């Protein structure tokens, strides 16, 4: 659930595409911050706790990825706009809590899946830019996409949902695998990023629609 | 609750002030280590667990801050005296447990508030020294001051107190905000550090005295 | 429980010894990954959670140590073979769960103690190689050896076993202390590594056999 990689992966793109990516990045940050804040209020946290969970849910995955790949200080620590967007998401929930709970679940799930796709692809690309091997880049997609939600669950002393149910990190890794695999076959980088992101989004949405989980072992 | 920033922020101060700051830094480390050890014993940990919680409570916030701002290895990993002071705090509780529980709560709260103020100011200054933006420096004050206690709570599988109740991280951020804001207005750096620290201390003490919490939302 | 240090500490050893150490390193990684996967299944995680806990248990301690000593990106992020070995351990448990539960506990305990000894010694040596002081190197032995298991417990929202019972991190620190102490006395480095590792292994095995715990305070 962390977008902060996007701005770091614009090498070679023109200014307009860079601005588009940055805008999408902030949009994803905002969505995940809102989700973190909703969980914080459900968990009985105070307003500071709500803002902390907004920040951790939205930016924790990307910060963890940046620490692991050696991109320090992490992008969302250097660029304060990420924190501002995350806090805006938390403040939205604090001040408009009644309206936020009226948002249709399907809309939240769809926006979350879009954000997951963006962050998975951006996370894998940044890992490759920092010289990581393809397998590790795919793992970094999962960490970028689900690390923030894992932190959120740990702060609330829940076993992280991503380890127990749903198709979430697997969707992130599938998208990254498609992108990285295509690039290795020499297919155009930008196209494969789009195809990878679409794969992640489609798998996540279908799995929610169908109620898919990974099979549990006895 | 982490002081290890102090020694890293002495540029431009003379040797005597540096020694004073280092002494205060160790004193704060000791106080937070004692608090971590008391929580560890209440949580049923063994002596190793007590020492680990002393270390994590006293130094975890500063270590986390140093990792985030790119100051690696963290100051309290490089300088072994911090670990020695933290373990001394843990050992005090292990061997003098009966006496430690007789310490008046108000004394512990006061010492803790003094340490919080010191570490918040030192954490914000170190973040600025490493080129972080003012907003992020204020956040680093909160992480330096309350990161160790958060780690302590997570090790004991409690939802961190700082996210649920009290005015604690908010006091740290208030102090840092006063200092950073004053410096941006061109006021003298050392004076603003003192005023910021005093603001943090006063807000923390008044909030304990009055039983203040942040307002909870329905 | 993390071995990834071993490959980083081969300076001055010939190729054959390097290959032996790397093989032992992978063997230890595999054993701890199996243990992480068993705990994950007992905790009701799905297959993704099983693989995540394999990775975290086997490699988390070494990753944490590398972040703390400034060896970024961590060895087991750079070299994808560690992840592959960890996932192989997790997959073994997923597909051969019935057989794994038939493994005699004493065998698992013995293999775990051997891995602990290897990782403690390797962790302390790597810390010394990165310029840490002897006390901190001994602490890094404990983090390398027990950090992964601590992460595993936190993901399952258990208070980490290493903080509550058994002689585990203490065995790691004893072995590292013997090695570091001997080297400071000028005794041959390779011999002291073997003696230190043997001390850790012996203390761990005897403590399991005798049911030793650290004394709890009232």
Would you give an account of this structure?
The structure is a homotrimer of 218-residue chains. The model of chain A is unreliable at 1-5 and 7-11 (pLDDT under 50). Chain A has one domain. Chain A has helices spanning 15-42, 47-69, 75-78, 80-95, 97-100, 105-129, 134-155, 169-184, 189-210. Chain A has nine helices and no strands. The radius of gyration of chain A is 16 Å and the shape is globular. In chain A, helix 7 runs antiparallel to helix 8. With 218 residues, the first copy, chain A, is mostly helical. Chains in contact: A-B, A-C, B-C. Chain A binds chain B through residues 40-41, 43-50, 52-53, 63, 67, 72-74, 77-78, 80, 83-84, 94, 97, 154-157, and chain B through 67-70, 72, 130, 132-133, 135-136, 139, 154, 157-160, 162-165, 169-170, 213-218.
Question: How are the SSEs placed, and which strands pair?
Answer:
The structure is a homotrimer of 218-residue chains.
Chain A: H1 15-42, H2 47-69, H3 75-78, H4 80-95, H5 97-100, H6 105-129, H7 134-155, H8 169-184, H9 189-210
Helix pairs in contact in A: 1-2, 1-4, 1-6, 2-4, 2-7, 6-7, 6-8, 6-9, 7-8, 8-9
InterPro entries (chains A, B, C): Gly_transporter
Membrane topology (chains A, B, C): Multi-pass membrane protein
Main location (chains A, B, C): membrane
């Amino acid at each position: 659930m962390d977008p902060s990689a996007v701005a770091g992966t614009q090498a070679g793109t023109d200014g307009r595409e860079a601005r588009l990516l940055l805008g999408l990045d902030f949009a994803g940050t905002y969505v995940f911050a809102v989700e973190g804040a909703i969980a914080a209020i459900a968990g009985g946290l105070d307003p500071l706790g709500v803002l902390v969970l907004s920040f951790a849910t939205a930016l924790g995955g990307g910060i963890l990825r940046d620490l692991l790949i050696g991109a320090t200080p992490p992008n969302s620590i250097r660029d304060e706009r990420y924190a501002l967007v995350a806090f805006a998401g938390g403040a939205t929930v604090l001040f408009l809590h009644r309206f936020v709970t009226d948002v249709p679940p399907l809309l939240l799930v769809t926006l979350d899946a879009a954000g997951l796709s963006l962050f998975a692809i951006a996370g894998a690309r940044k890992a490759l830019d920092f010289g990581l091997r393809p397998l590790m880049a795919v793992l970094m997609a999962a960490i970028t996409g689900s690390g923030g939600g894992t932190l959120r669950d740990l702060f609330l002393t829940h076993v992280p949902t991503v380890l127990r149910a749903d198709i979430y990190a697997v969707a992130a890794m599938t998208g990254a695998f498609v992108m990285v695999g295509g690039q290795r076959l020499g297919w155009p980088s930008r196209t494969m990023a789009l195809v990878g992101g679409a794969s992640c989004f489609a798998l996540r949405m279908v799995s929610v629609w169908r109620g898919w989980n990974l099979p549990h072992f006895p």
